[in-house]
């Protein structure tokens, strides 16, 4: 029956490029199109195109693995149902922060494009989360209430995602998970709430255990990190983003799990407009922990070779920040400082204005172990009153900063 819903066409023109083309015909009237989409991906998993040109209501996990040279032409809309009771247990749990996802796409040489929309139907999730506040550490899911990630490119290589709109995600919009060579470009991300419940944790882009990821030419309206590089993200290129209302371009959070090594290295961030945000260029690690089984600090590892260039801030609470006590209270962080080291971080032409949320503070670099080779050139940042205060603690290379530091304790 499901096969009948998937029209397999052998278009004369398409046949030149693909062995098969699967066009998914929507059932309409709110019926679940998930099974038909999944069977299209099974039928058209190699040298094929999958055409999603209608309006699809999805109430089934989309788990599409083993793809090889597949174009996914999304010119229509994939909308997930706001069925919390279904999705919490049935979305796909991943191996980090209890994260789950609605759609896991996996394989080699995949191109997702087409001008269409992925609609997370987030309002119900925002309102429910606002009432219960049920989350794990640092906004992650629990095992009983999961807010799924809208789109995960997982266990994949050589993927391009472009020309897609993402609407009202219940949680992160994008996750590159255990993947290499993934490009996101020309995405329009809009996660906002119609009620007074905030659109929490709606990160634009996340990377985890991934390398050679490019994120470019996109517009992001949201209520958490614009981009965030989670544990083991290397060779990441981020450019030409317009971020509104976010928590910044973040490295981390890292060091969350006791005894686990987290690495973020070789990151270039260039030409970012950051408006009405909590942070601009941010690096965040949890502090240490006395608990050898801690899931809230105590991790190891390092952050190195990170450049932020041409980074324009407008009304940003902390335009430049390194925080090694993320989600860790002061007492514990003093007694058990972060074991993660930070080095080779360069700020080039970071400009604009802070919001004044921290008075005149525009730069806040507080390292637990000494940070090495942190440099800044072309810095031009002011608080609303025209003043600027730059806090640096445990930074070895203060001579390489083009501003005069004061210590946090002064
Ligand atoms: C994952 O969920 C469990 C159970 O709901 C919770 O105890 C745990 O803290 C969560 N993990 C994280 C890292 O938040
Ligand atoms: C991703 O790859 C890991 C490691 O190979 C494997 O354990 C896991 O099942 C894969 N996940 C999915 C959803 O395919
Ligand atoms: C990365 O993936 C894209 C899209 O499949 C491909 O065109 C490109 O050659 C790949 N780059 C490398 C270095 O493999
Ligand atoms: C993506 O959109 C851009 C700008 O509209 C267009 O030039 C490009 O051809 C599109 N890419 C694909 C693969 O459709
Ligand atoms: C969100 O929570 C606040 C504080 O508890 C409450 O006043 C408000 O009514 C809630 N909003 C919604 C849409 O539930
Ligand atoms: C910088 O990024 C903006 C988007 O925020 C884009 O419009 C502009 O063209 C980019 N500039 C360059 C030189 O690429
Ligand atoms: C990160 O990579 C290092 C070095 O390969 C490895 O030891 C560590 O387990 C990885 N951490 C995670 C979270 O995958
Ligand atoms: C530092 O990172 C940049 C950007 O990813 C990369 O091009 C460069 O090779 C890296 N430098 C070193 C010494 O690895
Ligand atoms: C840590 O977890 C291990 C394995 O679950 C357990 O045997 C040990 O008692 C735990 N240690 C502490 C301090 O909770
Ligand atoms: C700080 O956190 C630790 C561990 O979670 C807790 O035991 C302690 O009570 C907290 N201290 C304060 C002042 O909140
Ligand atoms: C920084 O900005 C200045 C003034 O706009 C410009 O002259 C310089 O080339 C820029 N430097 C870099 C490295 O982009
Ligand atoms: C830093 O302070 C020194 C001594 O007060 C002063 O000469 C210098 O101009 C200041 N540098 C900047 C960038 O404000």
Which SSEs are present, and which pair or pack?
Elements lengths: L1 H4 E4 L2 H6 L2 E5 L9 H10 L2 E7 L2 E4 L3 E13 L2 E4 L3 H7 L1 E2 L6 E2 L1 E11 L3 E3 L3 H10 L18 E4 L2 E11 L6 E4 L2 E11 L14 E4 L1 E12 L5 E3 L3 E12 L4 E6 L6 E15 L3 E8 L13 E17 L1 E9 L3 H6 L3 E16 L6 E17 L2 E3 L6 E7 L9 E2 L4
Parallel strand pairs: 2-3, 3-5, 4-6, 5-9, 6-10, 9-11, 9-12, 10-12, 11-13, 12-14, 13-15, 14-16, 15-17, 16-18, 17-19, 18-20, 19-21, 20-22, 21-23, 22-24, 23-25, 24-25, 24-26, 25-27, 27-28
Antiparallel strand pairs: 1-2, 7-8
The protein binds 2-acetamido-2-deoxy-beta-D-glucopyranose (12 copies).
GO biological process, one term: cell wall organization
GO molecular function, one term: polygalacturonase activity
Subcellular location: Secreted
Number of alpha- plus pi-helical segments: 6
The amount of helix comes to: 10-25%
CATH superfamily of the largest domain: Single-stranded right-handed beta-helix, Pectin lyase-like
* CATH overall fold name of the largest domain: Pectate Lyase C-like
Count of beta strands: 28
- Given the helix and strand composition, which structural class is it? mainly beta
Mean pLDDT: 95
Over all CA atoms, what is the radius of gyration? 22 Å
